[in-house]
Amino acid sequence: MIAALTSLTILGLVLGLILGVAARVFRVEGNKLVEEIMEILPGSQCGQCGFPGCAGAAQALAAGGAPVTLCPPGGRSVVLELAAKLGKEVNLAGVKDSVPKVAEVKEELCIGCTRCFKVCPTDAIMGAAQQIHSVFRDACTACGKCEEVCPTESVKLQPIPVTLHGWYWHKPNLQVLRNIPA
Amino acid sequence: MKLFKLRGGVHPESRKELAADRAIRVLPMPEYLYVPLLQHVGAPAQPNVNVGDKVLKGQLIGASQGVISAPVHAPTSGHIVAVGDYPAAHPSGLTAPTITIKADGEDRWLDTEAVSDPFVLSPDQISARVAAAGIVGLGGATFPSAVKLNLSRKNNVHTLIINGGECEPYITCDDRLMRERAAEIVEGVRLIRYAVGAEVVMVGIEDNKPAALAAMTLAAKNTEVKVIAVPAMYPMGWDKQMIKALTGREVPADGRTADIGVLVHNVATAFAVRDAVRFGRPLVSRLVTVSGGSVIEPANLEVPIGTLVENLFQFCGGFRNKPARMVLGGPMMGIQLASAAVPIVKGSSGVLALTDSEIGNVQPSPCIRCSSCVRACPVGLLPLDMAAHIRAGDSSAAVTLGLKDCVACGCCSFVCPSHIPLVHYFNFAKGELMEQERVKLKQESTKKLAEMRNERIARIERERVEAAAKRKAAREARERAAKEAAAKVVTETA
Amino acid sequence: MNRIAHSPHAHAPISISKVMVTVMVALIPATLFGFWLYGWPSINLWAVSLIASIGGEALVVSWQGRTVRPVLMDGSGILTAWLLALSLPPFAPWWIAVLGSLFAVVICKQVFGGLGQNVFNPAMAARVMLLISFPLEMTTWISPVPLGSAHAPSLMESLRITFQSHPIDGMASASLLGHVKTEFTRGIGLDQSLVGYYAPWHSLAGDRAGSLGETAAVLLLLGGLYLIARRIITWHAPVAMLLGVAIPALLFNLINSNHYAGPLYHLLSGGVMLGAFFIVTDPVTSPNTTAGQLIFGFGCGLLTWIIRTWGGYPEGVAFAVMLMNAATPIIDYYVKPRIYGRDRKGVALPVGKES
């Protein structure tokens, strides 16, 4: 009886000590995680996630207050990276990859007001006052800010057409493999 | 000669008998030719003609641009009717930049610069002529040949291997070429050897083509070219497999054949090199096998680049029954065509119209881990595990199993008793990973842009604040001075 | 929409059901011989096993809301029940066969996710379950009573044996392995226990007590060779298993022939032949690579010999197979083929002119 009590107590103490030491030695710096998440996020501060910029989103993610699927411009790859970083399971079947988009200026509607290129977080819109603006496609993150401020609905997000260069095979859809009723 | 042991591989029914004994015929010039600007690995050619221009056969219509690229030439004389997009021979059915030529029926060659003895040319001149002729790997890889020649010379390649494997079922165009034009091929081989300075030259031909072997052996008599029979198996024509069989060496992963001092070219490429070097003629036509159970009269045709696939089928008498599948290339690695109205390109070795029974299409069932795919894989991969990971949405796990070493030869899918489309999974995953890579690169660059912009805004703000402070200070100084002056005035007046 | 299909546009003439049917064909000679040897009760038992397997699988698959037909058509459930029937005492009561079959196809296969997902060989797992749950029924063997012989039960008698557990009079006998084990516990060595009980020829001809599938060693061997010739299985796992039994048997027999039986005794008795050609070659529960299959087969053989020699049970094939089944994932993890252009560790080969 006494032997059992002592041994269990000692065991508990030793294990507790190890846990305590481990907690100190392997402590993850809170803000370090935020920084690492910042590295993953697109950093265009578009605010589509509902947080004030990417830093706000990173803090929320680190605190566990936001889903890893929060970032629309990041798409699938950011979701995967975030999930890996935060050790979260993510059901990608639920993450519908939104069709990649890019902003386009309808030249006949553009009045050269410069509002869009003032809000563009990545300087992807070129132009000057009273001149028709145009979009530098490689820099556009499709955050949609320009669309919001355009007074003439000239800037619109358009899906990027699939080209031979970007095309790849669809995933084989074999329900038969599991023989699941359709 | 002693051959080296190979791993994996399969023995599909060859069905070469459908077309093997049909001598090469020349396809009559079609009215329109559709010449895509990208028929090779690398950067697309840049068009240098406009709609309405008259062109001669062999005239440059798209110039090579960049280090790895190849030019394209007019396959016949006529005039340009369009420079724009046309459906490509691609599983997506998407369009590609293409130059459309209306043939004038004269088929008149451009004046080309022929040389009576090509061996007086310098190696540099030879590769320049090969580059100018737009020759690419005609076995299907379509890598620009001149780039390979230069790379090989730089790497002091000692062994030249000419690939006469032609392991794809049905396809017999290389077989016919070797039977009918062996001397020309051997001359091309000797030119390549001379251009890269290789010591050993071997032509590997599968032993299921005895006539081609005999013709090539005869043509190579008293030359430095050795013709060697290799066992018939798929994928013998995979260049790295051929190297292994003939030299026992393996090309390092992620490396090129030149890394182990070997250069591999296809027999048809050697033939095209001879045409280019001796006669200065660019690559404007190629041999194409038309075969399959639905084709009335299978054939081996010499076809101008840019001819529509449907013209080939028409010439072969059309279909005896509606084909279940039309395929460009061989059945193991070829692509299904949604429409026959797509052009033949430099890498097209065959067009097939297959019946249902030839395809052997069966509904997939679950994997029973029989490991037939593991035994069949010539690369030494675990297709069943890779596909399982990809199916579960974890492509990166497949990469750690060697997905990037997969050559998509199709052996695994071919032998799978469950009929699981293993290669389809692999190509999907490769595409998905490439897409992710692209997205990541874009994100990195846009992130930098955003940071730069934020810095700029911060700087402007800072400068504005500083300027305001300065102005304020100046104003205050002025006011103080004014006050002092006023006070002075007051005191003075007082 | 007619979707564009990915290459290859040709396929080897093979399918799952073809594989299963070929294996069944290979089992036919040994099974027919067993039927002849043990008469109607064995046929009843075999039929009951198959019916229970088909019915049980159909039921659970339809409960899952899946289509029943393709699952039954692949033939894997029938094959499992067949193999199980071959490993049962031929005069066992019907509920042994039913319980075993249901356990095999429902618990060991469908619960794990169906064909291809199970960790353990269903037939062997079911046999182990039966053996440890119903030791009496599973170890009541009888001497062969070939059809047409004087003692052979008639069809009506056989129905009573199978379905009413009618006691078997005067025919009960121990299997060879069981006999030797019992004699050992009485302190009788091999030199005496085997006298008049064992001759290699008897084992070859199946003239002794045992389960349906263990008496016809030669016919099972023939079936196995047929499968190798048809390229349904490879020689690696079977040969490795036979060696795994034979090598330790030979070594220990040389040391003490009174205590350790020789290789022939071990190879031709019990479930070794059935195991080597029809159980360890089960694709689902064995490793993927040839090297892995060699390890797996040898492990099955060695464990079988160890259990037979030192374990509590006279026969160990089923236990050995299950233990090695559990080791299959780890074998697959460590034994992988070398990738072209890379070394065994997966590092790219060095770039150089000379190798």
Task: Report what the structure shows.
The complex is a heterotrimer of chains A (182), B (494) and C (355). By secondary structure, chain A is mainly α. Chain A has helices spanning 2-25, 30-40, 53-62, 75-86, 115-119, 145-149, and strands at residues 101-105, 125-126, 134-135, 155-159. In chain A, the strands form 2 sheets. Chain A has a two-stranded antiparallel ribbon with strand order 1-4. The mean pLDDT of chain A is 80. Chain B is α/β, with parallel strands linked by helices and 494 residues long. Among the domains of chain B are: 16-27 and 119-303, NADH-ubiquinone oxidoreductase 51kDa subunit (Rossmann fold, 3-Layer(aba) Sandwich); 372-432, no CATH class. In chain B, 37% of the residues lie in helices and 17% in strands. In chain B, the strands form 4 sheets. In chain B, strands 1-14-13-17-15-16 form a 6-stranded mixed beta sheet. A 4-stranded antiparallel beta sheet of chain B has the order 2-8-7-4, with no helix packed on it. Chain C has a single domain, classed as Ammonium transporter fold. Chain C has helices spanning 16-38, 40-63, 68-73, 76-86, 94-110, 122-133, 135-138, 155-164, 176-185, 190-193, 200-205, 217-229, 236-255, 263-268, 272-279, 290-310, 317-334, and strands at 141-142, 172-173. In chain C, helix 6 crosses helix 17 (317-334). Chains B and C meet through strand 16, helix 13 and helix 14 of B and helix 1 of C.
Q: What CATH architecture of the domain at 101-159 in chain A would you give?
A: 2-Layer Sandwich
Most extensive contact:
B-C, 70 and 46 residues
Largest sheet of chain B: 6 strands, mixed
Summed up, the helix count of chain B is 14
**CATH class bucket of the domain at 101-159 in chain A:** Alpha Beta
Would you tell me which CATH topology of the domain at 101-159 in chain A applies?
Answer: Alpha-Beta Plaits
Number of strands of chain B: 17
Helix content of chain B: 25-40%
Q: At the first level of CATH, what is the class of the domain at 16-27 and 119-303 in chain B?
A: Alpha Beta
Strands of the widest sheet of chain B, in order across it, are 1-14-13-17-15-16
Strand percentage of chain B lies at 15-25%
Order of helices and strands of chain A: HHHHEHEEHE
Indicate the radius of gyration of chain B in whole angstroms. Answer: 30 Å
Uncertain runs of chain B with pLDDT below 50, 5 residues or more?
A: none
- Class per helix and strand makeup of chain A: mainly alpha
Give the beta-strand count of chain A. Answer: 4
Strand content of the residues of chain A, in percent?
Answer: 5-15%
Distance between the termini of chain B: 124 Å
Which CATH architecture of the domain at 16-27 and 119-303 in chain B?
A: 3-Layer(aba) Sandwich
